[in-house]
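User: Please fill in residues for this 260-position structure.
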């Protein structure tokens, strides 16, 4: 396992060195055509040819993009690939949170995430890199694209269908407004669904308890955040009124007991 991880890191370093060499040549030959044809002799090995193809893939991804070194301080969880779909989605959510906190640029996210692959996940990604370098599959240049590939491999279709059904049937029920909102957000993240603000407002509002719905519909709100705050305020008022009624009933019962 460690040998394969070492080989993967060496491959990434080799790509970077080749990229730097190519950039120096490009700067010194600005008047020459961008596309340079490579001719293979009879003595070129298959491994060297694959390395060159992978290098070209990396060059196309990062051409004219300055590199920013996030590697020393961004700490991501490892992913082995030998997990359930729930654990993968938790890993994905944690990685996304770290990327947002450190404001990692899009062209660095795939590199950082792939460095945390272990065991089966490392084997799977290594094969993907080789296939991309040999033009057997499309290039993965973004975190969103990597998530799509990983979800296709590590999250079975039936699980996504179950999540969609849960989302369609989601109601506040016995939850508080805040708990209901957080559950909705987590479900949307797991499905990787990007809805408009209007769609989120409609989905959240339709799942609120009826008495809360009746009140919030009397007000105007332009964002989901404002609707959530309004619903929490209405819920709090209902709760205070409920407690007040209980205290009145208890006081009345105590008074009747004393009269007897």
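Assistant: Residues filled in for all 260 positions:
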């Amino acid at each position: 396992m460690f040998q394969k991880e070492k080989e993967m890191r060496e491959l990434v370093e080799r790509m970077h060195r080749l990229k730097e060499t190519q950039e120096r040549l490009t700067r010194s030959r600005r008047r020459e055509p961008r596309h340079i044809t490579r001719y293979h002799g009879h003595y070129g090995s298959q491994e060297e040819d694959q390395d060159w193809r992978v290098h070209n893939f990396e060059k196309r991804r990062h051409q004219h993009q300055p590199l920013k070194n996030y590697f020393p301080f961004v700490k991501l969880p490892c992913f082995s690939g030998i997990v359930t779909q729930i654990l993968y989605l938790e890993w994905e959510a944690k990685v996304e949170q770290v990327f947002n906190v450190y404001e990692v640029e899009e062209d660095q996210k795939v590199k950082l995430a792939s460095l945390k692959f272990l065991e089966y996940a490392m084997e799977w990604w290594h094969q993907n890199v080789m296939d991309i370098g040999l033009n057997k599959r499309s290039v993965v240049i973004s975190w969103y694209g990597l998530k799509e590939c990983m979800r296709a491999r590590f999250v079975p279709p039936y699980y996504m269908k179950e999540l969609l059904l849960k989302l369609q049937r989601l109601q506040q029920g016995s939850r508080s407004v805040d708990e209901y909102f957080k559950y909705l957000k987590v479900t949307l993240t797991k499905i990787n669904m990007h809805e408009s603000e209007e769609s989120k407002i409609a989905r959240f509002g339709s799942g609120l308890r009826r008495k809360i719905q009746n009140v919030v519909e009397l007000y105007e709100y332009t964002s989901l955040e404002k609707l959530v705050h309004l619903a929490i305020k209405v819920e709090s008022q209902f709760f205070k009124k409920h407690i007040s009624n209980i205290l009145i009933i208890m006081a009345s019962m105590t008074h009747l007991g004393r009269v007897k």
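For context: Residues 173-259 form one domain.
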